[in-house]
């Protein structure tokens, strides 16, 4: 149990770091963030209010796909990730100037995109509540036997489409996240699964005894 908690928290912390990096880069926003901003422009209210509304909508979509009850636990991941995000932004990035060089901005953005995928690939293997977006991705993966990569692309492009319709700030960065973060998630998750497989864990436990001999 402790190892699962550690995997969960480490993955969410890395994921939050990736989000903070993309925000800090000023090179683009994620698809669902663009949708929330578009809702703000179109209907008023705050971006935060629409972010929560969108997360609830995604949980309802996941309920339909999985044919299960409403997943209240998915909000736990949102709360924990928000805490980590605030820690990264206010304790680290607030002390650093936003890069003025376009090359540096895009390098930071790409590093952030990579960290987003790595974090998700790690924390979903803990089998604890997932964020609504990640929960929908895994629901599509399980229900339709799609790869994690394809499932993520479908989820991200849906958010991108909504963002475009509502006039959200959809740009090259949004499309990069939509099309490539799923590949990172799938690659990392496969590696984590192998590391946590019974065979790998048994081999790891045997090593100390072998060294004593």
Description:
The protein is mostly helical. The protein has one domain (2-212). The chain is built from 9 helices and no strands. It has helices at 2-25, 31-43, 47-66, 74-91, 102-123, 132-144, 148-165, 172-195, 198-212. Helix 2 (31-43) crosses helix 3, helix 2 packs parallel to helix 7 (148-165) and helix 5 (102-123) packs parallel to helix 8 (172-195). It is globular, with a radius of gyration of 18 Å.
Summarize the structure.
By secondary structure, the chain is mostly helical.
List the helices and strands and how they pair.
Elements: H1 2-25, H2 31-43, H3 47-66, H4 74-91, H5 102-123, H6 132-144, H7 148-165, H8 172-195, H9 198-212
Helix pairs in contact: 1-4, 1-5, 2-3, 2-7, 3-6, 5-8, 6-7, 7-8
How many domains would you count in the coordinates? 1
Report on the biggest sheet.
none
| Mean pLDDT score | 85
Give the SSE order as H and E letters: HHHHHHHHH
Please give the count of helices: 9
Structural class: mainly alpha
Radius of gyration, CA atoms, in whole angstroms: 18 Å
Q: Beta-strand level of the residues, as a percent range?
A: under 5%
Shape: globular
Helix content: over 70%
Low-confidence stretches: 209-213
Annotation, overall tally of beta strands: 0
Distance between the termini: 30 Å
């Amino acid at each position: 149990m402790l190892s699962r908690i550690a995997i969960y928290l480490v993955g969410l912390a890395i994921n939050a770091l990736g989000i903070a990096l993309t925000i800090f880069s000023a090179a683009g926003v994620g698809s669902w963030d663009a949708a929330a901003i578009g809702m703000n422009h179109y209907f008023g209210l705050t971006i935060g209010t629409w972010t929560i509304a969108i997360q609830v909508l995604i949980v309802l979509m996941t309920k339909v796909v999985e044919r299960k009850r409403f997943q209240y636990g998915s909000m736990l991941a949102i709360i924990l990730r928000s805490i980590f995000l605030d820690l990264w932004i206010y304790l680290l990035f607030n002390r650093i100037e936003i890069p003025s060089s376009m090359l540096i901005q895009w390098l930071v953005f790409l590093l952030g995109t990579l960290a987003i995928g790595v974090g998700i690939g790690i924390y979903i293997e803990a089998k604890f509540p997932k964020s609504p977006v990640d929960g929908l991705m895994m629901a599509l993966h399980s229900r339709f036997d799609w790869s994690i990569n394809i499932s993520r692309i479908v989820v991200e492009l849906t958010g991108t489409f909504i963002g475009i319709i509502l006039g959200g700030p959809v740009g090259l960065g949004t499309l990069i996240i939509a099309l490539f973060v799923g590949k990172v998630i799938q690659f990392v998750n496969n590696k984590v699964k192998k590391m946590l497989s019974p065979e790998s864990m048994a081999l790891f436990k045997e090593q100390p005894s072998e060294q004593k001999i």
